[in-house]
Amino acid sequence: MSDDAGEGTGDATGHGTGDGIGDGTAGGRRFLLATWDGGGNVPPELGVARRLVAAGHAVHVLGDPTLEADALAAGCTFSPWGRAPHRRNFEPSEDPIQDWESKNPLVLLGRSATA
């Protein structure tokens, strides 16, 4: 394929890079999954990511640093949040909200706003 058809070239959006994945040259699309490490949301979201990757799509996960290994294992690329309350590890003291310490939802809301 020549550069006229988009192979080996790319515009500012990253389209037409010619790698065949996620840029439309092989029918794949690019997906961004933004998530956090909380509750039961991670397994189903990474399950969707795995299926998208298996179908030839490029998937990028944006989330807590604790999700990096799982996102990479699912075949995704990964970036941690730049500015958001998040966990760097699984230590309870690192949890930004520590919801187990209060039964008052207004207190929890205040913690999440200042975390």
Shape: elongated
In DSSP terms (H or I, runs of 4 or more residues), the helix count works out at 3
What share of residues is helical? 25-40%
Largest sheet: 3 strands, parallel
What are the segments in which pLDDT stays under 50 over at least 5 consecutive residues?
A: 1-25
Strand order of the largest sheet: 1-2-3
Strand portion: 5-15%
Number of strands: 3
- The H-and-E topology, N to C, reads as EHEHEH
How many distinct domains? Answer: 1
Structural class: alpha/beta
Radius of gyration: 18 Å
Mean pLDDT level: 75
Whole-Å distance between the termini?
A: 51 Å
Give me a quick take on this structure:
The protein is α/β, with parallel strands linked by helices. 25% of the residues lie in helices and 13% in strands.
List the helices and strands and how they pair.
Layout: E1 30-34, H1 42-54, E2 58-63, H2 68-73, E3 77-80, H3 105-114
Parallel strand pairs: 1-2, 2-3
What distinguishing features does this structure have?
3-stranded parallel beta sheet; disordered N terminus; alpha/beta; elongated; 115 residues
Descriptive report:
The radius of gyration is 18 Å and the shape is elongated. The chain has one domain. The protein is α/β, with parallel strands linked by helices and 115 residues long. The N terminus is likely disordered. The protein has 3 helices and 3 strands. Strands 1-2-3 form a 3-stranded parallel β-sheet.
